[in-house]
Design brief:
By secondary structure, the chain is of the alpha+beta class. It has 15 helices and 38 strands. Its main location: membrane.
Length: 785
């Protein structure tokens, strides 16, 4: 060992130099650590524990610490650390819960010095005190941290975080007695080694496990943390409460974080999975890495700067069984490959476009904003800074504002509040939503709802319009066949030649024909079903097939009254033309008549007062609902692509199973999430919850079923109530008793946040009208707001 020490000293006396290089390891590495003079590095893993020398051109294996025929689990290392004060002292964290120290000065092959087996589960981290030689700290999966004095055979202090497993522990570089610990529940705790009973400070740093932490080598109060939430956060610990001062967003869980020596703003990170690269970040520019090392082919497990005062050499170990030395000058710079242009739409339709100033400086038509308006600055110039190593880029930002009317989103809010998505028959929902869209001046959406009603409504179950919604044709059913002219036979005759027009009326297949009485010229009603009639020369427009608009009938009744008829006719029948010859041929030539089908009945009395033609089609005029599904699917996609995801989701909910199977689940989930996000942006919480509850997508319905547990404590014994009643199973007293009437509150309960007493809402309100003290007699001055 003396020889090894002499070699170390000789190499340490020379300046640090080298190149980017690597060596193959016998097994994947879990952690690495470098000695104080930066000439040797130790690599530890489940099946490897070796020391390599750092020479000019290559790594040279110096010592293999896994000795013996059957190496024990003490050699299976999860972490390793080389003491920065004593060059012969190493410590490892074993996967079996052991903390092992190694003395490289031992003359024997086995360098193991001391073995501590106080932890019950895997030890995740070991850390030497930066200045105290014999102080070692460990953090384990069992949730405990232990401080060892290497001159003794057992730990001198045990720290319980009262939390889940400890993932990292780090002594402060500037405070002698302080160390930080990170936990899997997202918390970070600060401890004083002199007070093992309770932590000095605790705060929630990440949403999810905190895998690593590192104190800034120069700034006393800065602590960097990395977690599963893919973020690296820098905290200022000098204030009363931990303050987040920087946050870097990465693309994968952060496994290691190390501050770069001699560079205040730079830190290096590696990921726990997915991403194999090592990134160096400038915390002032958190959106793009300052430098990237892309040599590893598998996940990087350990990173360390070669020397605590040299920022140009970085060492790394990986699961690809390689050990690398990276030179900073060989790192790739993502900023050099970054796209200098940017384009973004605002929530209200504003368009922002950024580009290099040199690209658009020749555009003389671009009008800048007034100099007094600082909301949209045109040029962003970075002040020259000698310590700033990012490329200096001046950009020009142009903002194109939409018109004031087009950016208003009142229609979205009103539509969301007024739409009905359930609780009524399908036809009523469509009619109501069509009316809402029409009132908001959205005719296309209104027409879409009307068409959906026509497509998917069952004509036999349509509600009969009221007396104020009678069209020119009387009570015309909204049948889901859109070509009534094609399905019926219509003969247009020239009245100037003494001919009159016949209009064919469709009956349901089960309806009977209308019989005629030629002697008295009276019509009799059909046997069942609903029949429609048209008389004389009344014109039938296409719009009349779908219009249910109200018309004043008082005028019609004054002009056309036939009291002897069962219902009023269009007008008085004046002419008595004879039957045209070609109408007699229609009985045989009509395309709708064949076999024993009902024939066209021509009512021709002796005096030829009127002419009525009624026909029945060969096939049912009602198309199946699935016939329209492809059209509806394209329509929903069109609305979604146009940005009206509200319409797409509303139709999905109203149609339900009629259309759900036609659209894949991922598309539905995307629409639902987009609409729910918009509703929550506009603080429409009730509408958002209704959409979640009525959604047809299983991935959406579970959104409002998380975090819905309400924990209730007994007001007497202050312990959690396990049963669902009003009696506490511990103290056997009523938990929610009204302080005024002393009865159990089974409905709405109101309580004072100061003294926790309360009762029925009405009773407490009446009490506080004339009293200011708590009705329970505790003396607290309660106030109802």
């Amino acid at each position: 060992m003396e020889k090894m020490s002499r070699v170390t000293t000789a190499l340490g006396s020379s300046g640090i130099s080298g190149r980017t290089m690597f060596c193959h390891l016998d097994a994947p590495a879990n952690a690495i650590s470098v000695c104080r003079d930066a000439t040797q590095v130790v690599v530890a893993g489940r099946n490897i524990f070796k020391i390599y020398g750092l020479e000019e051109e290559q790594f040279v294996e110096k010592l293999n610490l896994r000795v013996g025929r059957k190496p024990s689990l003490n050699f299976s290392c999860a972490d390793v650390m080389w003491h920065q004060m004593e060059e012969n002292l190493l410590a490892t964290a074993a996967t079996n819960g052991a903390v092992v120290t190694w003395n490289l000065g031992k003359p024997s092959r086995n360098k193991q010095d001391q073995l501590f087996t106080e932890h019950k589960r895997t030890v995740n981290k070991v850390c030497f005190h930066p200045t105290e030689v014999y102080m070692l700290l460990s953090g384990s999966q069992d949730g405990y941290m232990k401080c060892f004095d290497l001159r003794k055979k057992e730990s001198v202090s045990t720290f319980s975080g009262q939390s889940e497993s400890v993932r990292d522990v780090q002594f402060s570089m500037k405070d002698y007695f302080t160390f930080a610990a990170s936990f899997e529940n997202g918390n970070v705790q600060l401890w004083d080694i002199r007070r093992p009973d309770r932590y000095e400070r605790m705060f929630t740093a990440h949403t999810g496990p905190v895998f690593c932490c590192d104190w800034h080598p120069d700034d006393r109060g800065w602590l960097a943390t990395g977690g599963r939430d893919k973020m690296v956060k820098v905290w200022d610990m000098t204030t009363n409460r931990a303050k987040e001062i920087y946050c870097v967003q990465t693309i994968a869980s952060v496994a290691r974080v190390k501050w770069r020596p001699e560079r205040k703003w730079h830190l290096a990170t590696c990921s726990m999975m997915v991403d194999h690269n090592i990134y160096v970040w400038d915390v002032r520019r958190p959106f793009i890495p300052f430098a990237t090392f892309e040599e590893h082919k598998d996940v990087t497990t350990g990173i360390v700067w070669r020397h605590q005062h040299d920022p140009y050499f970085l060492l790394s170990g990986s699961k690809d069984s390689t050990l690398y030395q990276h030179m900073f000058k060989d790192a790739s710079r993502p900023v050099d490959r970054a796209n200098p242009e940017g384009l973004c739409f605002g929530l209200f339709g504003d368009l922002a476009f950024a580009a290099k100033e040199s690209l658009i400086s020749g555009d003389s038509n671009r009008k800048p904003y007034p100099s007094g308006d600082r909301r949209y600055p045109i040029f962003f110039f970075k002040k020259p800074d000698l310590t700033e190593q990012f490329a200096h880029v001046s950009s020009a930002l142009s903002v194109f504002e939409s018109s004031l009317e087009s950016r208003r989103m009142d229609w979205f809010v009103k539509t969301a509040r007024l739409y009905l998505l359930g609780g009524k028959p399908f036809a009523e929902l469509c009619d109501h939503n069509a009316t809402v869209a029409k009132e908001l001046n959205r005719p296309q959406v209104s027409t879409t709802w009307t068409m959906l009603r026509l497509m998917f409504s069952d004509p036999a179950n349509l509600s009969t319009p009221g007396p104020n919604n009678i069209s020119k044709l009387g009570n015309l059913p909204l049948m889901n066949s859109f070509s009534m002219k094609e399905m019926g036979t219509e003969s247009r005759l020239d009245r100037s030649k003494g001919e009159s027009r016949q209009d064919n009326i469709h009956l349901e297949p089960g309806n009977s024909l209308i019989n005629s009485n030629n002697d008295e010229n009276e019509e009799t009603e059909g046997s069942e079903g609903q029949a429609e009639y048209m008389f004389g020369d009344a014109e039938l427009d296409d719009d009349d097939l779908y219009s249910m608009e109200h018309e004043i009938q008082a005028v019609e009744e004054q002009e056309y009254t036939l009291p002897q008829e069962a219902f009023p006719l269009r007008h008085e029948i004046m002419d008595n033309p004879s039957v045209p010859e070609h109408l007699q041929q229609d009985k045989a030539d009509s395309p709708h008549a064949s076999g024993n089908e009902a024939e066209v009945m021509c009512l021709t009395p002796i005096e030829s007062l009127s002419l009525i033609a009624i026909s029945q089609p060969l096939f049912s005029p009602h198309l199946p609902a699935r016939f329209f599904c492809p059209v509806v699917r394209e329509m929903l996609s069109h609305y979604a692509e146009q940005g009206d995801v509200q319409m797409a989701v509303s139709v999905l909910i109203v149609l339900g199973d009629r259309i759900r199977k036609e659209i894949d689940d991922l598309t539905q989930e995307h629409w639902y999430m987009s609409y729910i996000d918009l509703l929550q942006r506009f603080e429409l919480w009730n509408v958002s919850n209704e959409v979640i509850k009525l959604s047809t997508c299983s991935a959406i319905t579970c959104l409002n079923q998380t975090s819905t547990t309400l924990h209730v404590n007994c007001s007497n014994c202050k312990r959690p109530m396990s049963n669902r009643g009003w009696i506490c199973d511990r103290c056997h007293q009523c938990a929610s008793v009204c302080a005024v009437c002393h009865h159990v509150v089974k409905g709405l309960f109101v309580w004072c946040q100061g003294c926790s007493h309360g009762g029925h809402l009405e009773h407490v309100m009446n009490w506080l009208k004339s009293n200011s003290h708590c009705p329970a007699g505790c003396g607290h001055l309660c106030e109802y707001t």
